Amino acid sequence: xxxxxxxxxxxxxxxxxxxxxxxxxxxxxxxxxxxxxxxxxxxxxxxxxxxxxxxxxxxxxxxxxxxxxxxxxxxxxxxxxxxxxxxxxxxxxxxxxxxxxxxxxxxxxxxxxxxxxxxxxxxxxxxxxxxxxxxxxxxxxxxxxxxxxxxxxxxxxxxxxxxxxxxxxxxxxxxxxxxxxxxxxxxxxxxxxxxxxxxxxxxxxxxxxxxxxxxxxxxxxxxxxxxxxxxxxxxxxxxxxxxxxxxxxxxxxxxxxxxxxxxxxxxxxxxxxxxxxxxxxxxxxxxxxxxxxxxxxxxxxxxxxxxxxxxxxxxxxxxxxxxxxxxxxxxxxxxxxxxxxxxxxxxxxxxxxxxxxxxxxxxxxxxxxxxxxxxxxxxxxxxxxxxxxxxxxxxxxxxxxxxxxxxxxxxxxxxxxxxxxxxxxxxxxxxxxxxxxxxxxxxxxxxxxxxxxxxxxxxxxxxxxxxxxxxxxxxxxxxxxxxxxxxxxxxxxxxxxxxxxxxxxxxxxxxxxxxxxxxxxxxxxxxxxxxxxxxxxxxxxxxxxxxxxxxxxxxxxxxxxxxxxxxxxxxxxxxxxxxxxxxxxxxxxxxxxxxxxxxxxxxxxxxxxxxxxxxxxxxxxxxxxxxxxxxxxxxxxxxxxxxxxxxxxxxx
Length: 652
Ligand SMILES: [Zn+2]
Known about the structure:
- The chain is an alpha/beta fold.
- 24% of the residues lie in helices and 36% in strands.
- The strands form 7 sheets. Strands 30-29-28-27-26-25-24-23-37-36-35-34-33-32-31 form a 15-stranded mixed sheet.
- The chain binds zinc ion.
- The site of zinc ion has 4 residues, from strand 8.
């Protein structure tokens, strides 16, 4: 048998081939592109709001295993770690809301509905209503227990992504107290799930035992009696007996559970402070207190914490409560009472805009933006007993963070300009970049002055005036309902029909909105149904098609088949007074006959991108004149026409 160096030839060949393969694999391994390490992140050169009232510029931060591992004035470099350039951006702790209601018993009336809500709605609520607003820790008060215990377990086990959730379970109250008689009025099930109605010491003890076994974090009870407005119903609620109130606080403490109380009136707050309550929810809403009021000293001495819910006062029938809430907040703040942000937000119906508004109210009360931020970060963590790991941007703290495009210390409304949100270092929200589209300049048909449209049900019509477009870029629209003028709008637009200014008036329900686009931001002020509005929307180079269907002539004229655009909602739905993103698409051509006249049209479909499955609008635009001919909706395979062109007026 032939051999090489005493090794049989066949073995030698195998050895050489083996070595070549190993070397090849080795080179491949050493030169392959490196994947970034999971769970690690660097943000360089960022302005940091610590959470304790201080800030520092040009900092770099390294996050590892969900925790802030390093903060440095020098750029941090690590191999294979994702780096975010924080230049010009601000990093702050995630917001902590110490008073929210995820589910108020509105949409669920039994366990089955509750389970469906939990599994099908909650991920969407967290992803759309909560996390994008930078809310990373919440304390839920009195959601139905069947629901909230399961939700807590799902979040803690990592099965559902959501903010850290602390709970109280059901709320102690007197028989027929709040929330038994109020939120609980939606169903028997909600009533028994959200409230423990107590009238005897035995019932108190049994309730605390039940809640301790369920592993709640705190206790909550209602200490208010008398008249109570629940939406438009005036109810009478009963207050817990004073001795039972003391028993809850005392026995709760013995079982390691601190109590907070829902309270509205001065005298009740006084009794609670004297009884050693841990926290006051809502506060003194029946009068203004001054710094020398004895209750301020009593409060300070008691050490009780305070969770104001100023924004919630906008829903109160008694409008003086808002003024008292704002006034007393400042007095208590100046006295050094520990205050944590709470909003009463109902996430099943509202978004984190509520938390942003709450912060704005603190500033309106006289706090600086920085002081307001501390209430929602460090103070929130202290109130919830988690200050050792939350509420500040410091080494060792959990990386629940908000990265902002603008600095909220300069102006609290900048809190809306969120670029990214991190939960324990993981990005759970990142701002979608706004796309721009190339729409050529649009000119209306020569001598066109106005157009009239009517709804097919005969109830509405509208007139659009173009006569100021060439000279001033202004288009006006008047909508009539049942023959009466209902809404009046003036749009200042650019050549692609994208708005730069919008004035909307609907006197019947006190709506008057002014919105102006400047430097890529739409600033909207005025009032919506009598409620003051002050919002900003970052839109960059995106299309602001506030005229909606009246903008399609420009789109039809463009070579593009599909565009995204933005519009502020004015209806009654969740989108009211917020910016919606719409996708419009050319889906074909069709001849349309209206009042014996036939138009050759481009057909366009329209969806709201976040609810693309829920609604599709259809629009037919005349290719000859660029005018909208008719519009409607598509449900399943059925098309329904809702609006039609009635008349075009030309200069004679
Ligand atoms: Zn509440």
